[in-house]
Amino acid sequence: MFKLSEIKELxxxxxxxxxxxxxxxxxxxxxxxxxxxKTEVVTVQAAPLTHTYSPAPAPAPAAQYVPAAADSSAAxxxxxxxxxxxxxxxxxxxxxxxxxxxxxxxAAFVQVGDRVHEKSVVCILEAMKLMNELEAEVRGExxxxxxxxxxxxxxxxxxxxxxxx
Length: 165
Description:
It is rod-shaped, with a radius of gyration of 27 Å. The protein contains two helices and eleven strands. Helices cover 10% and strands 33% of the residues. The strands form three sheets. The protein has a four-stranded antiparallel beta sheet, with no helix packed on it. Strands 8-7-5-10 form a four-stranded antiparallel beta sheet, with no helix packed on it.
């Protein structure tokens, strides 16, 4: 791969000579510098990958973010889905980063036990350097915060559980 300082030096050399085009290949990376008139055009093409890229598995649907019911051989325990059937889930409308407060030193917008109404801001979701306030859209009590501050979140991922009024 080419270092930025090397590319700058090559551009200066091409500019100071009568050479109009320079193409260099180094360790699989290709650099082409053209001098049409007095402007310079730099094209850097990355070398093809030699290893196989395996993307992360696709996020599970929102219904699968809750743990499965306990093993039937274990003592009977209510499954999380049964316990949360009457609760409203506040879902992420986008992929981004979850922030529980407006700034690192500020208190969280909401905590377990807080009462919210439809227009209550419950968190900030950062996507592409834009900070988006997320409103509760339901009246009730925050029962559980399902994500951590600074956590990356997926579209449709449950963020809060609210006991509706």
